[in-house]
Design goal:
This protein has three helices and eleven strands. The protein is an alpha+beta fold. It is globular.
């Protein structure tokens, strides 16, 4: 499959994600403006908005090379879904958008990525997948804010690198894979 590599892959923390299209980003920004004005709340930057599919963790060069060999097999259709609920997750203390009816294509892609990671000898924490888009960290309590559903259309898969900065993590897209026609 045709992939596009933005930068050389070097050891670091990586994950697979879907990036929101421009319309989805605008809808998400509108929802974020409705979150409480709390100085301890850490809002995601627009550039960092994404839907994590599989966290790969800290990868060395050998694991990255093995992963790249396995990614030739990635095939997935366009994924359309709605994020229709603003949730508070107490464990990680985040506000996130969740979907009450995620698409089966999404779960198929996550399963495919778990298999690819396994084939590349990358140990991932396989647990039930919960589609979400993190809006803010360091949230302290749940809130009841009605939202209009966000129509999320993913047309490419992204391998992202998490880089720690003084202003919190920055997520750098390093490779992209477009959808495939069935």
């Amino acid at each position: 499959m045709n992939s596009q590599q933005n930068t050389p892959l070097t050891p670091g923390r990586y994950f697979f994600a879907l990036s929101p299209d421009t319309s989805s980003r605008m809808q998400i920004q509108h929802i974020m403006k409705r979150l409480p004005e709390d100085p301890s709340l850490k809002l995601q930057t627009t550039a960092n908005l994404h839907q994590t599919l599989l966290f790969l963790g800290q990868l060395d060069q050998q694991q990255l090379n093995a992963l790249l060999k396995q990614t030739d097999s990635i095939r997935f259709p366009a994924i359309d879904m709605q994020f229709d609920h603003l949730s508070y997750w107490d464990g990680p203390k985040i506000f996130c958008l969740t979907s009450r009816a995620p698409s089966s294509e999404l779960y198929n892609l996550v399963n495919q990525l778990e298999h690819i990671a396994s084939q590349a000898d990358i140990k991932v924490d396989v647990k039930p997948y919960l589609p979400h888009i993190t809006l803010a960290r360091k949230a302290s309590e749940s809130l009841d804010v009605p939202i209009a559903p966000v129509n999320f259309k993913a047309e490419q898969l992204v391998l992202m690198k998490s880089v720690s900065t003084d202003h919190g993590p920055q997520y750098q897209p390093v490779m992209h894979w477009p959808v495939t026609a069935d």
